[in-house]
Amino acid sequence: SGFLMELVNNVLNMNKLESGEMKPENKPFDLIELLTETASIVEMQGQEYAIHFQMQMGKHKYRHLIGSPLYLKQVLQNIGGNAVKYNRAGGAVTFASEDVAYSDGRAVIKFTCTDTGRGMSREFLVHAFEPFSQENTDARTTFTGTGLGLAIVKELVEQMGGKIEFSSEKGIGTVFIVTLKLKISSTI
After folding, report:
1. φ and ψ at 108, to 5 degrees?
2. Interval 17-64: pLDDT, tens
3. What is the pTM for the complete model shown?
4. Residue 36: helix, strand or coil by DSSP?
5. In whole angstroms, how large is the CA radius of gyration of the chain?
């Protein structure tokens, strides 16, 4: 029942994103608070699977930003959740964040999630962001995945004006990098 509920919610979210019903917020938020909350959730998920979790938060010059904290949290939780779910017992997940640049009242921030999980084959990499795509046919039953998570993540990142890229090697792990340009808040 949990899998079916997740599937229905993901299908509805994907449909709303594609139809333009869902739009990113444009509100102030505290980056450090958001990263701490997200890291805590992923770390708890990792404990269930005996996954070692590490957060490497850079020294952010500006922690008060304007953007879509809801979308950003969803992106990071989804990528982190996948890093845990598709890992191996005793594996590791590392979250990192760092400022890349500042200009025109905006901060460019890079978020990286690295795991020691199953990884993806070279052939599958081009399909990773396609709705309902999963490399292994047993993924839906073994990992209770819907194959929509990365498609939703890509759409959310693009709606926030950001970029997502990744590299992966079968049996070694995966690295996801999300880069966003966020307005610096002067009111908080």
Report:
1. -95, 120
2. 566 666 788 999 999 999 999 999 999 999 988 999 999 998 899 999
3. 0.84
4. helix
5. 16
Rounded Cα distance, 14 and 22, in Å: 9
Cβ pair 173, 115 in contact under 8 A: yes
Residue type, 56: Q
Q: Which helix (H) or strand (E) holds 65?
A: strand 64-67
Question: Which pair of tokens denotes residue 89?
Answer: 């017992």
pLDDT tens-place string over residues 157-177: 999 999 999 999 999 999 999
111: Cα separation from own chain's centroid: 9
What is the dihedral sign for C-alpha 22, 127, 69, 52?
A: positive
DSSP result, 128-154: TTSTT--SSTTHHHHS---S-HHHHHH
Q: How many CB atoms sit inside 10 A of residue 148's CB? A: 21
